[in-house]
Amino acid sequence: MSATEELFREDATLLACEATVLSLDEEGLVLDRTVFYPLGGGQAGDTGWLVAPDGSRLAIADTRKHKGHPGAIGHVPAAGADLSAFAPGTRVSAQVDAERRRAHMRFHTATHLLCALIPHPVDGCSITAGYARLDFHMSEPLDKEALTAGLARLVAEAHPVRHRWISEAELDANPGLVRSMSVQPPRGLGRVRVLEIEAVDLQPCGGTHVANTADIGAVVVTKIEKKSAMTRRVVLGFGPAA
Ligand SMILES: [Zn+2]
Predict the structure, then answer these.
(1) Taking the CB of the first residue and of the last residue of the chain, which one, N or C, has fewer CB atoms within 10 A?
(2) 88 CA to centre of ligand 1 in angstroms
(3) Alpha carbon of 208 to ligand 1 centroid (Å)
(4) Mind listing the pLDDT tens digit for each residue in 56-80?
(5) Distance 148 CA to ligand 1 centre (A)
C-alpha cells in the first residue's frame, strides 16, 4: 500500500480535497491524499466526512497514523457506519470538521507561545478542541494571570507563523531547537519540519497552525497544576471574544 500524501503539512487552511480510497481495514480507510490530520505531536486527530460520488456521507470519528503501513493515514469511521459506498478505488471528497480543526490550530499555536513564555523543557502535551495542556519540566511556581497577560500580548502583536523544512544536519547543529523531552522529531526522512513564530519561537513541529498569532484570538490560562516535584501543568481555554 502506498503512503498518504499529507496535504495538511503544507497548507493547514485546506479543509477539503478529492481523494481515492486505497484500502479499508480495522484501522480505517486509507486515502491516497488527505487534509485530515492524524493524532500526533499532542494534537488530536481530525474528524469530518467522506462523501462518495452517489452522495453517501461517511462520518469520520478520528484520524490515526496506520500502525501496519508506515506513511499511511487511517480515517476511522464512526461506529456502525455503512461502508458499502466506500470500497477501495472509490473517488471521495474528504471534508474536515472545520470548526473543530480551527480550535486545534488556535490552541496549537497558543501552546508554542506558552513555550516562549516558559523557558523550560516540555514533557507532555495535549491539544483538543476544548482545551490544551502542556507539562513543563520545572519546579518553580507559575503565575496564571501573568501567563494569560503574556499570551494576550503575543496575540495582539500579530506575529506571522510559518513552517519550513530543515535538514537533520541543521537540526543536529542546533540542539536547542528541540524543546520537547518526550517527543523527538521523526528521524530518518532527511528533513524535519520546523514551525516559526516570527521573533518569538522556533521548534520542530508537524502540527497545524494559524497563519498569524492574531488569529489565535482570546486564550486564557484556566489552571496551573503541580503534577509532581518536577512537573508544572498549564491548561489553556478560549477566553470570551474581544
Ligand atoms: Zn507543535
Answers:
(1) C
(2) 33
(3) 8
(4) 999 999 999 999 999 999 999 999 9
(5) 19
